[in-house]
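Quick illustration for those who missed Monday's session on complexes.
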Amino acid sequence: VDLEPLKKEAALRAVALIESGMRVGLGTGSTAKYAIEEIGRKVQSGELTGIVGVATSEASDTLARAVGLTVEPLDPRPLDIAIDGADEIAPNLDLIKGLGGALLREKLTEVQSRRLIIIADHSKIVGQIGEKSALPIEIARFGFLSTIERLRQIVPGGRLRQPGAQPYVTDNGNYIYDAHLPVGGDIAALERTLKGTLGVVETGLFLGMAERAFVASPDGVQELSR
Ligand code: DER
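Prediction with D-4-phosphoerythronic acid bound:
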């Protein structure tokens, strides 16, 4: 089945929560793209006014401006709402994110948002974190081979993200190591261990951050809340 209409439906449900005057975190990825386009449509039609967007990637910044949104850099002021996709959604709304490579700016932005709304198709639903997706970990470029060796001691079986001849480089000039998580286990403890590992910049574990998720499947859009 074509998931794109389902992803768009989920995005429309999330965008319906935005009110005029809000500061909005703009997510990254193919589902967040529908949300950014819809916000742009509502601003152009006058349904929404006074919206300021904060983008979680260069790609989302470019798209937001292209649809006529005002985009500002992240500053310490809180955001009213952020809308973003995910790679895995657990029953308690713990997430894996980062397959689009934007996890650092996403987490930096979304921790400042009063509400984090996740939008996805049903393929992202898991019973436990680690079931379907790798865990993206952003690592410093300098000494990355040493950092990867440190990570292999914690989460063996991962690899540097390298789609072509060169490693993938994030908007922040870092590399990504895609780790394979053991399913189950204490992921909060794992997050602490990973964050305490020299050379690790950020992980794609978004634990206890999302307020709700709109998940689209062929029989409709489910609204999950924590
Ligand atoms: O990289 C990211 O964090 C994206 O939000 C990703 O998790 C979801 O991307 P998708 O909507 O294209 O599947």
